[in-house]
Design a protein that fits this description.
Length: about 190
């Protein structure tokens, strides 16, 4: 009888440990899922848990580059760290546009921590910008929807540069799902394949 009780007790303890381990992992996953939904993971440029594929819809008024260094359909290597796995990834150029590109800091409209030095938004993704260019420390309203809580956010310009920007498709160098229509990579962040 004692042997059966000991076996039963051991079995119950093993089941308890398994359930405890599963529930601990589930809490972690729920927490990770919540951070994905809020769009605030790592906020200072770490968008590694985000699906950065986009529809490819362009902001109104953006102009195609007439003679880009990297023509549409060409391959290039990305040298940027906007997202995990981006640096060193091979990109296919989907679009090339002449514009002013901005790094910005903003607090998401959905709440949460401030995002600092987000790269990039373009001139045409600033409300009321039209032909006005902005400089460091200017305050603007963002119309881009690259991340949850970005559209409609008030932002401060961290840097500005007139250049060619590219929309690209790439598979992260670290592996994982292909990213399509990523907006934006600057010309200086690409090298020929």
């Amino acid at each position: 009888m004692k042997k059966k009780q000991f076996t039963l007790l051991t079995f119950l303890m093993i089941i308890s440990f398994i359930l405890a381990a599963c529930s601990g992992g589930q809490s972690k996953n729920e927490s990770m899922d919540h951070s994905k939904k809020s769009g605030h993971e790592g906020m200072n440029m770490d968008h590694s848990n985000m699906d950065m594929s986009a529809s490819g819809e362009l902001p109104k008024g953006i102009k195609e580059a007439k003679n880009p260094t990297f023509p549409v359909g060409s391959k290039a290597v990305i040298h940027a760290v906007h997202m995990e796995g981006m640096n060193g990834a091979e990109a296919t150029i989907v679009g090339a546009y002449d514009t002013t590109v901005y790094a910005i800091s903003y607090t998401p409209t959905t709440g949460g921590e401030k995002v600092t030095n987000h790269k990039w938004i373009v001139q045409e993704e600033i409300k009321g910008a039209e032909n006005q260019t902005y400089k460091r420390e200017d305050e603007v309203e963002v119309t881009a929807d690259h991340m949850k809580g970005m559209k409609g956010a008030k932002a401060v310009i961290d840097s500005a540069e007139h250049t060619t920007v590219y929309m690209v498709d790439y598979t992260p160098a670290s592996g994982g799902k292909k990213v399509t229509n990523h907006q934006w990579v600057t010309e200086s962040e690409l090298t020929a394949k």
